Here is the input.
Amino acid sequence: MTHPNPLPPVRRAWWRDAVVYQIYIRSFADGNGDGIGDIAGIRERLPYLRDLGVDALWITPWYVSPMADGGYDVADYRAIDPMFGTLDDADRLLADAHALGLRVLIDIVPNHTSDRHPWFQEALASPPGSAARARYHFLDGLGDHGDVPPNNWPSVFGGPAWGRVIEADGQPGQWYLHIFAPEQPDLNWDNPAVRAEFELILAFWLDRGVDGFRIDVAHAMIKAPGLPDLRPEHVTGEPLAPGGHPHWDQDEVHEIHRAWRRVLDRYPGERALIGEIGVDDPERLAAYLREDELQTAFNFAFMGAEWDAPELRSIIDATLDANAPVGAPATWVLSNHDATRQVTRLGRSFTGLRNRELDDLLTADLALGTRRARAAILLMLALPGSAYLYQGEELGLWEVEDLPESVLQDPIWRRSGHTIRGRDGCRVPIPWSGHASPFGFGPPATTPWLPQPASWRDFTVEAEMADPDSMLRLYRTALEVRRRLPGLRAAGHEWLPSPDGTLRFRRGDDLECAVNVSADALQLPVGRELLVSTHGDIRRLPRDAAAWYAAREDA
Ligand code: NOJ
Ligand code: CA
Here is the structure.
């Protein structure tokens, strides 16, 4: 099937095909040696990102936060947490990045605040029924003594989604909703004061020059009226009627995105919104990308795919088919700070976004995962649309699954009663140089907030730059070719015939991509210039290999 470019031939907005590099700020680079990454560290490393060849950065939450969930619990949306720096540092970072031609997206967390946010503190100090409580979801409990939560919703991080507060008389009183950790109370988006406040927060950052926002759980803000119980089909994963889940993907959430888009459109410079939207149905997902809503949304179906040619192909088709009618580009991603790193994921016989908890005893074949991750990135970067990279994937880092329990910080670990280790294994500070921790993450005496494996000495930026066959060099070459070839920017894609277990497609007049997922071998067409390959200069791709080559015969 062919997916023609639905757009007229005008200059395309940057976000349509940008490569965006995700910075998990705590773990990227530590400028002051306290073991925690910060804005100063990012500023020092901007030339690395420019040379890597990305177009933009997405920085995970840097706001004032007690860090109950790695900064996704925001206590002040207009200030930088002192552990990361100051507002002046943020301004300087924006200026430096822009001077290097890098755009900057920041994370915005609208579904919930921190329990330390002044609004929540005010709500706790105010009586039931007060305006302060109406900014959140406070309800009386059920049962004779009100000691049963108002409904049966579970928290994403384990346990019930309700916490009970102590009232002014010292007695247990109302309950408040927290879809995530108890330290992350859900805001009530039916309240106009909440909507107005977030539009001002967006403007605050747009005025400072950010190029857009990654919206945390952008499908969660609206709850069904009356907060009805989950029914069995919500839990078993049976297909639901559109808008059928009481707190995910409610239709009214689109109004919020339309309002936000109007705020962005007041600003020059193609500011953009990318949604983190956990909606499986490609058409429901595409609805967020209508012309007056978000420009892009992560495509998690691709990230969670098995390493299986028919599955990959059908996810690619479903994504492009669903996005075409709304004219939105696809957004491809292989990892982020919530998912098991792809070297580990693809080194197991099953995938899914997080897989450690499925079987503790099943070890990953990291060599296999590395080969597949190399092929997967060439597949991803050849697809039409924008692409997101997560810090460290360009070094081929794996999930650190043997972190000592004493250092685990993800609230999932505690909330699961110490049965699910959570996401710290993909958040270990990344190695830049040298032969021992901190590997240039911070000044020499730095103790990183999570310990780095000693074997990362061979996976530093420094070591990989010296090795022409490294993951880093593959990423740099692929990104350089992607920038150079206009066909990789503008054109649609066209599947070409290829044997079972393989994928082959063309992008415009410039390039073809071949991926051998599971066949014994895949022969590349003769007479074509090889542009990038996972396996050097060979024309017969083994299993778990990929190559880009010219779409036309050599002149
Ligand atoms: C999604 C974020 O990516 C994740 O890290 C966070 O825990 C939840 N949203 C809650 O904010
Ligand atoms: Ca620091």
